TrEMBL record:
Pfam families, A to Z: RecR_C (PF21175), RecR_HhH (PF21176), RecR_ZnF (PF02132), Toprim_4 (PF13662)
Zinc-finger found in the keyword field: yes
Protein name: Recombination protein RecR
Family, per entry: Belongs to the RecR family.
C4-type ZnF: 107-122
Annotated GO biological process: DNA recombination; DNA repair
GO molecular function: DNA binding; zinc ion binding
Amino acid sequence: MSLRAQRGNRMLYRANMLPCDCHAALVMTWKIGNAYTECNHIKNIYLRTMNFSSKLLENAVAEFAKLPGVGQKTALRLVLHLLNQDKQDVERFSTAVTKLRNEIQFCRVCHNISDLPVCEICSSHRRDHGLICVVEDTRDVMAIENTNQFNGVYHVLGGLISPMDGVGPSDLQVDTLIERLKPTDDNEVKEVVFALSATMEGDTTLFYLHKKLKSFNITITTIARGIAFGGELEYVDEITLGRSIATRVPYENSLSK
């Protein structure tokens, strides 16, 4: 029996001891010849089949393998890369991660990641505070900011409503959004733009928020959805294509300015 077959048998035997329903996933993972999986139970089984010359090396690989999108082989390459770097570079890397975890803050206004109690966007007088863009997380803020087309402020929900994942409205920053929409002497919100993903969870969240906000005397809009630039119609899904046809615009309005 080959070494690979022996290792595979050991992995499948250990799968019977898993505290989750990952046996079938492990079998499929092994059959396709790829040890990558998001299940940490399976990752640990695979790590135990690798022969490490150092316990410190094994522990470091195990920690890197917990990162999303990082398999065991990639984790091993990353750890070996760090070992080949100068000690000062590794210490800077470690310090940056530690400070990130210990010192990072969330803006008390919009809940975006920030170094200060109030982020630079919310504290800027150049921004239109009467225009709020509602997004799922910080990555969406960064994506919109990179377009240089939005001059308002943001509100980060911290997720989307997903009953399958046990995420409800109470788990999101909905109450603080409603508080921001109440008129004050300093500012009055005129428009709320929903920039949520075009998924089932995104549409569910959008529908819920629209019901909660429609009592306010404000304009509620959502970002346009359609065919991406350079996309071919035969590869576009039916929902996107249907929405593009239903929300068609005059040709003059589609020209880049």
